[in-house]
């Protein structure tokens, strides 16, 4: 069968690829090619801008809904991270639109004038050919962190995206939630 002849890899990573392509059609073609090469996980990384986030969500929605004419691998796509659901991104549904992104400090290459650590914002999406994870034991659903945790003296603030497609601000305390 075609499926057994297709060369696939457990992990396929594409960083800053979608933003290099000028049209939606070209991005969809690239995502289709990457997905066909994926036997388990596809990781897409883009700039942590509104445009980068929009491109990741376009790729996500395309792979979740597309029907290929020739099946290279019949297993459907599911979202592994960072989204805990497959509904519309709640960050795209509210004004002002803010991208789902994360900051990472890094040490740049030792070039003239670049010696100090720098911080970069990025967005990512991980799609899987495995079934989506079930909610934890007892129906506990903490959601996924979408912003850095803010620590205070007796509590912490967590901003999460829930499996029901809603954003939530949680205040976690030792008294309410145990140590």
UniProtKB/TrEMBL annotation:
<keyword id="KW-0809">Transit peptide</keyword>
<keyword id="KW-0408">Iron</keyword>
<comment type="function">
    <text>Mitochondrial ribosome (mitoribosome) assembly factor. Binds at the interface of the head and body domains of the mitochondrial small ribosomal subunit (mt-SSU), occluding the mRNA channel and preventing compaction of the head domain towards the body. Probable inactive methyltransferase: retains the characteristic folding and ability to bind S-adenosyl-L-methionine, but it probably lost its methyltransferase activity.</text>
</comment>
<dbReference type="Pfam" id="PF09243">
    <property type="entry name" value="Rsm22"/>
</dbReference>
<protein>
    <recommendedName>
        <fullName>Methyltransferase like 17</fullName>
    </recommendedName>
</protein>
<keyword id="KW-0479">Metal-binding</keyword>
<keyword id="KW-0496">Mitochondrion</keyword>
<keyword id="KW-0411">Iron-sulfur</keyword>
<dbReference type="InterPro" id="IPR015324">
    <property type="entry name" value="Ribosomal_Rsm22-like"/>
</dbReference>
<dbReference type="InterPro" id="IPR052571">
    <property type="entry name" value="Mt_RNA_Methyltransferase"/>
</dbReference>
